[in-house]
Automatic annotation (TrEMBL):
<dbReference type="InterPro" id="IPR013611">
    <property type="entry name" value="Transp-assoc_OB_typ2"/>
</dbReference>
<dbReference type="InterPro" id="IPR047641">
    <property type="entry name" value="ABC_transpr_MalK/UgpC-like"/>
</dbReference>
<feature type="domain" description="ABC transporter">
    <location>
        <begin position="4"/>
        <end position="240"/>
    </location>
</feature>
<keyword id="KW-0813">Transport</keyword>
<dbReference type="InterPro" id="IPR008995">
    <property type="entry name" value="Mo/tungstate-bd_C_term_dom"/>
</dbReference>
<dbReference type="Pfam" id="PF08402">
    <property type="entry name" value="TOBE_2"/>
</dbReference>
<dbReference type="GO" id="GO:0005524">
    <property type="term" value="F:ATP binding"/>
</dbReference>
<comment type="similarity">
    <text>Belongs to the ABC transporter superfamily.</text>
</comment>
<dbReference type="Pfam" id="PF00005">
    <property type="entry name" value="ABC_tran"/>
</dbReference>
<keyword id="KW-0547">Nucleotide-binding</keyword>
<dbReference type="InterPro" id="IPR003593">
    <property type="entry name" value="AAA+_ATPase"/>
</dbReference>
<dbReference type="GO" id="GO:0016887">
    <property type="term" value="F:ATP hydrolysis activity"/>
</dbReference>
<keyword id="KW-0067">ATP-binding</keyword>
<dbReference type="InterPro" id="IPR017871">
    <property type="entry name" value="ABC_transporter-like_CS"/>
</dbReference>
<dbReference type="GO" id="GO:0015423">
    <property type="term" value="F:ABC-type maltose transporter activity"/>
</dbReference>
<dbReference type="GO" id="GO:1990060">
    <property type="term" value="C:maltose transport complex"/>
</dbReference>
<protein>
    <submittedName>
        <fullName>Oligogalacturonide transport system ATP-binding protein</fullName>
    </submittedName>
</protein>
Amino acid sequence: MAELQLKSLEKTYGNGFKAVHGINLEVKEGEFMVLVGPSGCAKSTTLRMIAGLETVTGGEIRIGDQVVNDLVPGKRGIAMVFQNYALYPHMKVRRNLSFGLRLKRQPKDQIEQSTQVVSNILEIEELLDRLPKQLSGGQAQRVALGRALIKEPDVFLFDEPLSNLDAKLRASMRVRITDLHKRLRSEGRPATVVYVTHDQVEAMTMGDRICVMKDGHIMQVADPATLYERPANAFVAGFIGMPEMNLVPAVLSSNGAARLTLAGQTIMAGPDLTARLQTADGPVTLGIRPQHLEVLEDGAAEAFSGTISNLEFMGHEVNVHARVGDATFVAVVPTERFDTTLQRGDKVGLRPIAARLHLFDPETGENVSLADQNS
C-alpha cells in the first residue's frame, strides 16, 4: 500500500467552470479517508481525478513516491468500486473476480488461489458460479469489492458504493467494509482507502478521518469526534450530526462574562465559553446541537423562552421543535425523560449546555469559540 497526496489540485472544465479549487489532502498509508459533502461539492470529481478518469488541470496527485497525473488508470496502482457495481453481465462471479489478474497474465494456479482467498474473506464462495443477474444487491456489491481486493492495489477508491442498497443492507455493508479494512491492517496488509459518500452516517462510522467538502473546497479534515465536537466553521457544524446543529443569529456581549441575546432575551453563556472566545462583541451565529439543548419549564434560569411548534416521536427519543422569536430550535429529549403532557403551542424553557455552545462569525462562518483549531 502507499500514501496518497493531493497538492494544489484543480479541475477546470472547458466552459471555464472551476469545480475543484486547489485542494491539499494527505491520506496516510493504511488510512480510511472519507470524502463527504452535499451533491455538487466535487467529491466524486476529486475521486475520478485520483483514478485517472478525469484530467487534472492544476496541481498534482502523488501515490507513493510517484506523480501519477499523466498515467492511465491501469498504471496508477488503484482499484475502484463503483456505485453501480460495474460487473460484466456475461461473466460468472469467478471470472468477474479474476478478470484483472487474467489481463495481467498471471499463472492460472495463482489466479485460482487468489480467487479462493478473496471469496472466503467476503463469504461469497457459494456465488462463484452465478451470473451477476442472479445476485442480490448486497451480493453484487461484495463481488465488486472482491474484484478490487484481488488486485492488491496501492489505493482503493470507493464511489458511493452503498447508495443503491436499502437501509438495512447499507448498515451491514458498512460493517463488512470496515471490518475488512481492520482485518487487512491486522494481517500486515494495510489498505489505503478513499471513500466518497454524501451520507454523513457512513462518513462518521467508517472513516479514520473525514474530509468535508463544499463547492470544490475542503472545509475541514479531522477524525469523526473532532468534526462533531470542534467544527471549524458553520458549514461543517450544520452538515455533521443528526438532527443538524441549531444555527441561529444572536448578539454577543462579553463585559466580563459572555452573554447571548436572542429575540430580546439574554442568557449568560458561562465561563467556559468566555474563556474560549476569539471575537469581540456583536452579531454571531449561535450553534448548539439538539442533544445539548435542555427542555425545561418556561421561566427556567439561563434559558430562552420558546413555544413548541412540533413534536416528533422517534421511539427512543423525542425531537422538540420550538420557536424563539423568528428562530427555530430542535431539542432531542430521551423518551423516558420527556414530559408527555407537552403539546404544540406550550411554552418551554430552552437552556443550552454552556460547555457545548459554539459561536460562528456570521460573515466568514469561522468558529470563533475554539481556543485552538487543529484540522
